[in-house]
Design brief:
single chain; globular; 44% helix; Glutaredoxin; alpha+beta; 17% strand
Length: 117
């Protein structure tokens, strides 16, 4: 059965490039969404948040997070989702989706499960 993986990230992100390379090496078709060109929809972000929690989506070590001074921000989950939809560079990338299965960040073990099933 052929699978297709959707990957959200940026071309400059090393982990996103690693994910794209991982699937390319295994001849898995990928659909890359460059977050600098097109943001992920709030519904798509909500899907990841339901599985992992909103906190897992936020790149607290990222440059953009520090630039905006969000270290002391106390936002509700709903407000974070709005913020992430408006400013996708705050996301921890890559976000990967294969059918109903999801992964955040460099999750090579999870990706391996997807391609071996």
């Amino acid at each position: 059965m052929a699978i297709e993986v959707q990957i959200f990230g940026t071309k400059k992100c090393q982990d996103t490039r690693k994910a794209l390379r991982f699937f390319a090496e295994r001849r898995v078709k990928t659909h890359f969404v460059d977050l600098q060109v097109r943001a992920a929809s709030p519904g798509e972000l909500r899907r990841f948040a339901q599985k992992f929690g909103v906190a897992a989506l936020v790149d607290r070590n990222g440059k953009r997070y520090a630039e905006l001074g969000l270290r002391s921000a106390a936002l509700s989950d709903e407000r974070w989702l709005e913020r992430l939809a408006d400013d996708p560079l705050l996301l921890r990338t890559p976000l990967a989706r294969c059918q109903q299965r999801l992964a955040i960040g460099p999750a090579e073990d999870t990706w391996k499960e997807w391609v071996t099933e």
